[in-house]
Write a structure and sequence with these properties.
This protein has a single domain, classed as Macroglobulin (MG2) domain (Immunoglobulin-like). Helix content is 0%, strand content 41%. The chain contains no helices and ten strands. The strands form two sheets. Strands 2, 4, 5, 6, 8, 9 and 10 form a seven-stranded mixed sheet that branches. It has a three-stranded antiparallel sheet with strand order 1-3-7, with no helix packed on it. It is globular, with a radius of gyration of 16 Å. Bound molecules: copper (II) ion. Copper (II) ion is lined by residues 38, 58, 60, 83, 114, 118. This is Velvet factor. InterPro entries: Appressorial_penetr-assoc.
């Protein structure tokens, strides 16, 4: 089954504002690089597997500013979002450069591991560990 860790930034890391950084994630038990056009082909076909039964898909990262730690974040508002469409690199990582960094504040970064056509991955049993990872980090003024 699919499982993910965010390697950077780590939980509780402190980054400098408006400074580029690279988000690094690693997911196991998925074949990455399967990504269709989210504008024209969103959810257009069911999850697909390779000949070994592994899900063919991709991931996403989404970064949201935390205004109130006791309330759900508004899913329509995000500070950074990227589909990770390429195959994992030689380190097994999916990465993306946040090219302008972020303004000062508290943030939550989560992965959203998905099938080929962007739906969340489906797995064979209900009781399991999460397919995704989230971290919370702080961006401070220079
Ligand atoms: Cu997607």
């Amino acid at each position: 089954m699919v499982s993910t860790v965010i390697r950077f930034p780590k939980n509780n890391d402190v980054l400098k504002e408006n400074t580029p950084f690279t988000i690094r994630t690693k997911t196991i038990n998925i074949v990455t690089g399967f990504f269709d056009d989210p504008l024209k082909q969103y959810y257009i076909f069911p999850q697909t597997l390779n000949s070994k039964g592994l899900i063919q898909g991709h991931s996403h990262v989404t970064v949201q500013k935390i205004q109130d730690e006791n309330e759900p974040l508004d899913p329509e508002i995000f500070a950074f979002f990227k589909g990770l469409n390429d195959p994992a690199d030689a380190n097994g990582e999916l990465t993306v450069l946040v090219d302008n960094g972020l303004p000062a504040g508290k943030y939550r970064l989560c992965t959203m591991v998905s099938s080929f056509a962007h739906q969340p991955v489906l797995m064979p049993v209900a009781q399991r560990g999460s397919q995704d990872d989230c971290v919370r980090f702080t961006v401070v003024k220079k």
